[in-house]
Amino acid sequence: MRIFVTGASGWIGSAVVPELIGAGHQVLGLARSDASAEAIAAAGAEVLRGGLEDLDILRAGAASSDGVIHLAFIHDFTRFEASIQTDARAIEAIGAALEDSCKPLVIASGTPALPGCVATERDESPSDGPAAGRGANARAALDMTARGVRTSVVRLPRSVHGKGDHGFIAILTGIARDKGVSGYVGDGSNRWPALHVLDAARLFRLAVEKAPAGSVLHAVADEGVPIRDIAAVIGRHLNLPTAPLPAEDFGFLGMILAVDQPASSILTRELLGWQPVQVGLIEDLDKGHYRTPVESALRSINSFFCLSMLSAMCFMKRRKSSFSSLLKPARFLSSTNRTTARIFCATLLPF
Ligand SMILES: NC(=O)c1ccc[n+]([C@@H]2O[C@H](COP(=O)([O-])OP(=O)(O)OC[C@H]3O[C@@H](n4cnc5c(N)ncnc54)[C@H](OP(=O)(O)O)[C@@H]3O)[C@@H](O)[C@H]2O)c1
Hints:
The chain has 351 residues and is an alpha/beta fold. It folds into 2 domains: 2-161 and 195-221 and 263-279, NAD(P)-binding Rossmann-like Domain (Rossmann fold); 293-348. 47% of the residues lie in helices and 16% in strands. The protein has 14 helices and 12 strands. The chain has helices spanning 13-22, 34-42, 55-63, 80-98, 132-143, 168-179, 197-210, 227-238, 253-257, 266-272, 281-285, 293-318, 323-336, 338-348, and strands at residues 2-6, 26-31, 46-49, 67-70, 104-110, 150-156, 159-161, 182-184, 191-196, 215-218, 222-226, 242-244. The strands form 3 sheets. It has a 7-stranded parallel beta sheet, with helices on both faces. A 3-stranded mixed beta sheet has the order 7-9-11. Strands 8-12 form a two-stranded parallel ribbon. α6 (168-179) packs across α8. It is globular and about 80 Å long. The termini are far apart. The chain binds NADP nicotinamide-adenine-dinucleotide phosphate. NADP nicotinamide-adenine-dinucleotide phosphate (NAP) binds at residues 7, 9-13, 30, 32-33, 36, 51-52, 71-75, 108, 110, 156, 159-160, 167. The site of NADP nicotinamide-adenine-dinucleotide phosphate has 23 residues, from β5 and β7.
Protein backbone atom coordinates (compact mmCIF):
# COMPACT_ATOMS: atom_id res chain seq x y z
CA MET A 1 0.00 0.00 0.00
CA ARG A 2 1.02 3.62 -0.45
CA ILE A 3 0.26 5.29 2.87
CA PHE A 4 0.08 9.02 3.57
CA VAL A 5 1.37 9.74 7.08
CA THR A 6 0.90 13.13 8.75
CA GLY A 7 3.25 13.67 11.70
CA ALA A 8 5.75 11.32 10.04
CA SER A 9 8.63 13.29 11.57
CA GLY A 10 7.24 13.13 15.13
CA TRP A 11 7.99 10.75 17.98
CA ILE A 12 5.44 8.10 17.00
CA GLY A 13 5.63 8.86 13.27
CA SER A 14 9.40 8.23 13.29
CA ALA A 15 8.64 4.69 14.45
CA VAL A 16 5.59 4.20 12.22
CA VAL A 17 7.43 5.05 8.97
CA PRO A 18 10.12 2.31 9.26
CA GLU A 19 7.48 -0.13 10.50
CA LEU A 20 5.41 0.47 7.34
CA ILE A 21 8.40 0.40 4.99
CA GLY A 22 9.71 -2.74 6.69
CA ALA A 23 6.37 -4.43 5.96
CA GLY A 24 6.64 -3.57 2.25
CA HIS A 25 4.50 -0.42 2.11
CA GLN A 26 5.41 2.91 0.50
CA VAL A 27 5.10 6.04 2.64
CA LEU A 28 4.28 9.62 1.72
CA GLY A 29 5.14 11.78 4.73
CA LEU A 30 3.84 15.30 5.39
CA ALA A 31 6.65 17.75 6.26
CA ARG A 32 6.22 21.38 7.25
CA SER A 33 9.94 22.22 7.47
CA ASP A 34 13.25 21.38 5.79
CA ALA A 35 14.39 19.51 8.89
CA SER A 36 11.26 17.33 8.93
CA ALA A 37 11.52 16.74 5.18
CA GLU A 38 15.13 15.58 5.57
CA ALA A 39 14.23 13.24 8.43
CA ILE A 40 11.33 11.73 6.49
CA ALA A 41 13.41 11.27 3.32
CA ALA A 42 16.25 9.74 5.36
CA ALA A 43 13.76 7.19 6.70
CA GLY A 44 13.07 6.12 3.11
CA ALA A 45 9.73 7.86 2.58
CA GLU A 46 8.56 10.28 -0.10
CA VAL A 47 8.01 13.82 1.17
CA LEU A 48 4.91 15.98 0.72
CA ARG A 49 5.68 19.55 1.77
CA GLY A 50 2.92 21.30 3.72
CA GLY A 51 1.30 21.92 7.05
CA LEU A 52 -1.89 20.89 8.79
CA GLU A 53 -3.45 24.19 7.76
CA ASP A 54 -2.86 23.45 4.03
CA LEU A 55 -6.10 21.59 3.42
CA ASP A 56 -5.58 21.27 -0.36
CA ILE A 57 -2.25 19.56 0.25
CA LEU A 58 -3.82 17.19 2.79
CA ARG A 59 -6.57 16.32 0.28
CA ALA A 60 -4.00 15.72 -2.47
CA GLY A 61 -1.87 13.51 -0.18
CA ALA A 62 -4.88 11.42 0.82
CA ALA A 63 -6.27 11.16 -2.71
CA SER A 64 -2.95 9.91 -4.08
CA SER A 65 -2.64 7.17 -1.44
CA ASP A 66 -4.25 3.85 -0.52
CA GLY A 67 -4.71 4.89 3.09
CA VAL A 68 -3.86 7.56 5.68
CA ILE A 69 -2.40 7.54 9.18
CA HIS A 70 -3.01 10.92 10.80
CA LEU A 71 -0.53 11.55 13.64
CA ALA A 72 0.25 15.27 13.31
CA PHE A 73 -0.99 17.45 16.12
CA ILE A 74 0.02 20.93 17.29
CA HIS A 75 1.09 20.28 20.87
CA ASP A 76 0.82 23.87 22.01
CA PHE A 77 -1.13 23.56 25.27
CA THR A 78 -1.39 27.35 25.58
CA ARG A 79 -3.55 27.33 22.40
CA PHE A 80 -5.12 23.93 22.81
CA GLU A 81 -8.55 24.88 21.47
CA ALA A 82 -6.95 26.27 18.27
CA SER A 83 -4.98 23.02 17.89
CA ILE A 84 -8.22 21.03 18.22
CA GLN A 85 -9.89 23.14 15.51
CA THR A 86 -6.91 22.72 13.15
CA ASP A 87 -7.03 18.96 13.80
CA ALA A 88 -10.79 18.88 13.11
CA ARG A 89 -10.38 20.67 9.77
CA ALA A 90 -7.48 18.38 8.78
CA ILE A 91 -9.49 15.22 9.60
CA GLU A 92 -12.47 16.51 7.61
CA ALA A 93 -10.28 17.37 4.59
CA ILE A 94 -8.53 13.99 4.58
CA GLY A 95 -11.79 12.12 5.14
CA ALA A 96 -13.50 14.02 2.29
CA ALA A 97 -10.71 12.99 -0.09
CA LEU A 98 -11.24 9.33 0.85
CA GLU A 99 -15.05 9.40 0.64
CA ASP A 100 -16.66 6.33 -0.99
CA SER A 101 -13.24 4.71 -1.51
CA CYS A 102 -13.38 2.25 1.42
CA LYS A 103 -9.73 3.23 1.98
CA PRO A 104 -8.46 3.29 5.59
CA LEU A 105 -8.10 6.44 7.68
CA VAL A 106 -6.41 5.84 11.05
CA ILE A 107 -6.23 8.70 13.51
CA ALA A 108 -4.42 9.07 16.84
CA SER A 109 -6.31 9.94 19.99
CA GLY A 110 -6.05 9.22 23.71
CA THR A 111 -7.43 6.56 26.06
CA PRO A 112 -10.33 7.92 28.13
CA ALA A 113 -9.99 8.58 31.87
CA LEU A 114 -12.50 6.72 34.07
CA PRO A 115 -11.11 7.14 37.59
CA GLY A 116 -11.21 3.87 39.53
CA CYS A 117 -12.15 1.87 36.40
CA VAL A 118 -10.07 0.36 33.62
CA ALA A 119 -11.19 2.05 30.37
CA THR A 120 -11.84 -0.31 27.46
CA GLU A 121 -12.32 0.20 23.75
CA ARG A 122 -16.10 0.16 24.37
CA ASP A 123 -15.96 3.28 26.54
CA GLU A 124 -16.87 6.52 24.80
CA SER A 125 -14.21 9.13 24.12
CA PRO A 126 -14.62 12.08 26.52
CA SER A 127 -17.30 14.63 25.72
CA ASP A 128 -16.40 17.00 28.55
CA GLY A 129 -13.27 18.08 30.38
CA PRO A 130 -9.89 18.97 28.86
CA ALA A 131 -9.89 16.03 26.40
CA ALA A 132 -13.40 16.74 25.05
CA GLY A 133 -12.03 18.30 21.85
CA ARG A 134 -9.89 15.25 21.02
CA GLY A 135 -12.91 13.08 21.81
CA ALA A 136 -15.10 15.07 19.41
CA ASN A 137 -12.49 14.78 16.63
CA ALA A 138 -12.26 11.02 17.17
CA ARG A 139 -16.05 10.72 16.90
CA ALA A 140 -16.04 12.88 13.74
CA ALA A 141 -13.48 10.53 12.18
CA LEU A 142 -15.52 7.45 13.12
CA ASP A 143 -18.64 9.07 11.63
CA MET A 144 -16.86 8.99 8.26
CA THR A 145 -17.47 5.26 8.21
CA ALA A 146 -20.96 6.15 6.96
CA ARG A 147 -19.33 8.12 4.10
CA GLY A 148 -17.45 5.09 2.78
CA VAL A 149 -14.16 5.47 4.66
CA ARG A 150 -12.62 2.57 6.64
CA THR A 151 -11.90 4.68 9.72
CA SER A 152 -10.29 3.59 12.95
CA VAL A 153 -9.11 5.46 16.02
CA VAL A 154 -5.98 4.38 17.88
CA ARG A 155 -6.30 5.63 21.45
CA LEU A 156 -2.82 6.11 22.92
CA PRO A 157 -1.91 5.95 26.62
CA ARG A 158 -0.39 8.78 28.71
CA SER A 159 3.09 7.54 27.94
CA VAL A 160 4.39 6.21 24.64
CA HIS A 161 7.90 5.58 25.88
CA GLY A 162 11.31 4.69 24.49
CA LYS A 163 14.69 6.23 23.73
CA GLY A 164 14.10 9.75 22.40
CA ASP A 165 10.65 10.27 23.97
CA HIS A 166 9.88 13.93 24.61
CA GLY A 167 6.36 13.38 25.96
CA PHE A 168 4.91 13.53 29.46
CA ILE A 169 7.63 11.40 31.12
CA ALA A 170 10.33 13.66 29.71
CA ILE A 171 8.39 16.71 30.98
CA LEU A 172 7.99 15.06 34.40
CA THR A 173 11.74 14.41 34.48
CA GLY A 174 12.43 18.06 33.60
CA ILE A 175 10.12 19.26 36.40
CA ALA A 176 11.93 16.94 38.86
CA ARG A 177 15.26 18.52 37.85
CA ASP A 178 13.87 22.04 38.30
CA LYS A 179 12.24 21.36 41.68
CA GLY A 180 14.98 19.13 43.09
CA VAL A 181 12.25 16.61 43.93
CA SER A 182 10.77 13.83 41.82
CA GLY A 183 7.13 14.53 42.55
CA TYR A 184 3.66 13.10 42.25
CA VAL A 185 0.21 14.45 43.07
CA GLY A 186 -1.76 13.25 46.14
CA ASP A 187 -0.60 9.86 47.39
CA GLY A 188 0.76 8.93 43.95
CA SER A 189 -1.60 5.98 43.53
CA ASN A 190 -3.17 7.40 40.34
CA ARG A 191 -2.34 5.13 37.42
CA TRP A 192 -1.20 5.88 33.87
CA PRO A 193 -1.40 3.38 31.02
CA ALA A 194 1.73 3.08 28.86
CA LEU A 195 3.19 1.47 25.74
CA HIS A 196 6.58 1.26 24.04
CA VAL A 197 6.79 3.31 20.84
CA LEU A 198 7.73 0.28 18.70
CA ASP A 199 4.61 -1.60 19.83
CA ALA A 200 2.57 1.52 19.02
CA ALA A 201 4.06 1.63 15.52
CA ARG A 202 3.09 -2.00 14.89
CA LEU A 203 -0.47 -1.32 16.00
CA PHE A 204 -0.78 1.63 13.59
CA ARG A 205 0.44 -0.63 10.76
CA LEU A 206 -2.07 -3.36 11.62
CA ALA A 207 -4.84 -0.77 11.89
CA VAL A 208 -4.19 0.66 8.42
CA GLU A 209 -3.82 -2.83 6.96
CA LYS A 210 -6.86 -4.53 8.42
CA ALA A 211 -8.86 -2.77 11.17
CA PRO A 212 -12.58 -3.05 10.38
CA ALA A 213 -14.39 0.24 9.69
CA GLY A 214 -15.36 2.06 12.87
CA SER A 215 -12.79 0.31 15.12
CA VAL A 216 -11.69 1.87 18.38
CA LEU A 217 -8.29 0.46 19.32
CA HIS A 218 -6.29 0.76 22.53
CA ALA A 219 -2.51 1.04 22.20
CA VAL A 220 -1.82 -0.14 25.74
CA ALA A 221 0.66 -2.56 27.29
CA ASP A 222 0.87 -1.46 30.94
CA GLU A 223 -2.75 -1.02 32.07
CA GLY A 224 -1.90 1.31 34.91
CA VAL A 225 1.45 2.26 36.41
CA PRO A 226 1.13 4.23 39.70
CA ILE A 227 2.62 7.71 39.27
CA ARG A 228 4.50 7.20 42.55
CA ASP A 229 6.41 4.30 40.96
CA ILE A 230 7.24 6.44 37.92
CA ALA A 231 8.45 9.26 40.20
CA ALA A 232 10.55 6.80 42.21
CA VAL A 233 12.50 5.62 39.14
CA ILE A 234 12.99 9.19 37.92
CA GLY A 235 14.20 10.18 41.41
CA ARG A 236 16.61 7.26 41.58
CA HIS A 237 18.12 8.14 38.21
CA LEU A 238 18.46 11.85 38.99
CA ASN A 239 19.60 11.18 42.57
CA LEU A 240 16.63 13.18 43.91
CA PRO A 241 14.15 12.44 46.70
CA THR A 242 10.60 11.39 45.80
CA ALA A 243 7.74 13.30 47.43
CA PRO A 244 4.20 14.62 46.86
CA LEU A 245 3.92 18.09 45.32
CA PRO A 246 0.90 20.36 44.70
CA ALA A 247 -0.70 19.81 41.27
CA GLU A 248 0.08 23.46 40.38
CA ASP A 249 3.81 22.69 40.50
CA PHE A 250 3.41 20.55 37.36
CA GLY A 251 1.81 23.22 35.15
CA PHE A 252 -0.67 21.76 32.61
CA LEU A 253 0.52 18.24 33.54
CA GLY A 254 -0.87 18.69 37.08
CA MET A 255 -4.46 18.01 36.02
CA ILE A 256 -3.38 14.88 34.11
CA LEU A 257 -1.36 13.57 37.06
CA ALA A 258 -4.29 14.19 39.38
CA VAL A 259 -6.54 11.68 37.60
CA ASP A 260 -6.50 7.88 37.86
CA GLN A 261 -6.80 6.64 34.26
CA PRO A 262 -5.91 2.99 33.66
CA ALA A 263 -6.88 1.41 30.34
CA SER A 264 -6.83 -2.07 28.82
CA SER A 265 -6.30 -3.39 25.29
CA ILE A 266 -7.83 -6.87 25.49
CA LEU A 267 -10.34 -6.20 22.69
CA THR A 268 -7.66 -4.70 20.42
CA ARG A 269 -5.42 -7.73 20.91
CA GLU A 270 -8.30 -10.07 20.05
CA LEU A 271 -9.38 -8.05 17.02
CA LEU A 272 -5.99 -7.57 15.35
CA GLY A 273 -3.84 -10.34 16.87
CA TRP A 274 -1.55 -7.60 18.22
CA GLN A 275 0.65 -8.25 21.25
CA PRO A 276 3.00 -5.72 22.83
CA VAL A 277 6.45 -7.33 22.99
CA GLN A 278 8.69 -4.49 24.15
CA VAL A 279 9.63 -3.65 27.75
CA GLY A 280 7.14 -1.99 30.10
CA LEU A 281 7.37 1.61 31.29
CA ILE A 282 9.24 1.04 34.57
CA GLU A 283 11.82 -1.26 32.97
CA ASP A 284 12.29 1.22 30.12
CA LEU A 285 12.71 4.14 32.53
CA ASP A 286 15.36 2.12 34.34
CA LYS A 287 17.41 2.06 31.12
CA GLY A 288 18.13 5.74 31.74
CA HIS A 289 16.77 7.15 28.45
CA TYR A 290 15.48 10.23 30.25
CA ARG A 291 18.83 11.26 31.75
CA THR A 292 21.09 13.91 30.23
CA PRO A 293 24.61 12.78 29.18
CA VAL A 294 26.03 14.58 32.24
CA GLU A 295 23.62 12.75 34.57
CA SER A 296 24.56 9.44 32.95
CA ALA A 297 28.27 10.22 33.35
CA LEU A 298 27.77 11.06 37.05
CA ARG A 299 25.92 7.78 37.53
CA SER A 300 28.79 5.88 35.90
CA ILE A 301 31.26 7.63 38.20
CA ASN A 302 29.08 6.65 41.17
CA SER A 303 28.98 3.05 40.02
CA PHE A 304 32.76 3.11 39.64
CA PHE A 305 33.13 4.44 43.22
CA CYS A 306 30.73 1.79 44.52
CA LEU A 307 32.64 -0.97 42.82
CA SER A 308 35.93 0.41 44.10
CA MET A 309 34.53 0.60 47.63
CA LEU A 310 33.18 -2.93 47.44
CA SER A 311 36.55 -4.21 46.30
CA ALA A 312 38.21 -2.30 49.12
CA MET A 313 35.74 -3.73 51.63
CA CYS A 314 36.36 -7.28 50.49
CA PHE A 315 40.06 -6.68 50.77
CA MET A 316 39.73 -5.18 54.28
CA LYS A 317 37.36 -7.90 55.43
CA ARG A 318 39.89 -10.51 54.45
CA ARG A 319 42.40 -8.60 56.55
CA LYS A 320 39.85 -8.39 59.42
CA SER A 321 39.85 -4.58 59.43
CA SER A 322 37.70 -2.83 62.04
CA PHE A 323 34.17 -1.60 61.29
CA SER A 324 35.17 2.02 61.98
CA SER A 325 37.87 2.00 59.33
CA LEU A 326 35.25 0.78 56.87
CA LEU A 327 33.06 3.78 57.63
CA LYS A 328 35.66 6.37 56.63
CA PRO A 329 35.12 5.98 52.88
CA ALA A 330 31.36 5.99 53.45
CA ARG A 331 31.61 9.36 55.20
CA PHE A 332 33.63 10.70 52.31
CA LEU A 333 30.99 9.47 49.89
CA SER A 334 28.08 10.86 51.88
CA SER A 335 29.58 14.32 51.58
CA THR A 336 29.78 13.91 47.79
CA ASN A 337 26.79 11.79 46.91
CA ARG A 338 23.83 10.67 48.99
CA THR A 339 22.79 7.72 46.84
CA THR A 340 26.25 6.26 46.59
CA ALA A 341 26.62 6.54 50.35
CA ARG A 342 23.28 4.79 50.87
CA ILE A 343 24.29 1.91 48.59
CA PHE A 344 27.66 1.75 50.34
CA CYS A 345 26.12 1.62 53.83
CA ALA A 346 23.51 -0.93 52.73
CA THR A 347 26.32 -3.10 51.46
CA LEU A 348 28.09 -2.73 54.80
CA LEU A 349 25.21 -4.12 56.85
CA PRO A 350 26.05 -7.79 56.35
CA PHE A 351 29.62 -7.24 57.53
N1 LIG B 1 3.50 10.50 22.53
C1 LIG B 1 2.51 10.20 23.37
O1 LIG B 1 2.78 9.74 24.50
C2 LIG B 1 1.06 10.38 22.95
C3 LIG B 1 0.05 10.03 23.87
C4 LIG B 1 -1.28 10.20 23.51
C5 LIG B 1 -1.59 10.70 22.25
N2 LIG B 1 -0.59 11.04 21.37
C6 LIG B 1 -0.98 11.55 20.05
O2 LIG B 1 -0.31 10.81 19.02
C7 LIG B 1 -0.02 11.67 17.92
C8 LIG B 1 1.46 11.65 17.63
O3 LIG B 1 2.14 12.08 18.80
P1 LIG B 1 3.72 12.29 18.87
O4 LIG B 1 4.12 11.96 20.25
O5 LIG B 1 4.39 11.60 17.75
O6 LIG B 1 3.81 13.87 18.65
P2 LIG B 1 5.09 14.75 18.27
O7 LIG B 1 6.36 14.02 18.51
O8 LIG B 1 4.89 16.06 18.93
O9 LIG B 1 4.96 14.92 16.70
C9 LIG B 1 3.97 15.76 16.18
C10 LIG B 1 4.05 15.68 14.67
O10 LIG B 1 3.09 16.59 14.15
C11 LIG B 1 3.75 17.46 13.23
N3 LIG B 1 3.11 18.75 13.25
C12 LIG B 1 2.89 19.55 14.30
N4 LIG B 1 2.30 20.68 13.91
C13 LIG B 1 2.14 20.57 12.58
C14 LIG B 1 1.61 21.44 11.58
N5 LIG B 1 1.10 22.64 11.89
N6 LIG B 1 1.62 21.01 10.31
C15 LIG B 1 2.13 19.80 9.97
N7 LIG B 1 2.66 18.96 10.85
C16 LIG B 1 2.66 19.36 12.14
C17 LIG B 1 5.17 17.54 13.73
O11 LIG B 1 6.00 18.01 12.69
P3 LIG B 1 7.48 18.59 13.00
O12 LIG B 1 8.36 17.38 13.16
O13 LIG B 1 7.81 19.38 11.81
O14 LIG B 1 7.38 19.38 14.26
C18 LIG B 1 5.41 16.10 14.11
O15 LIG B 1 5.70 15.34 12.97
C19 LIG B 1 -0.56 13.03 18.33
O16 LIG B 1 -1.87 13.17 17.88
C20 LIG B 1 -0.53 12.98 19.83
O17 LIG B 1 -1.39 13.90 20.46
C21 LIG B 1 0.73 10.89 21.70
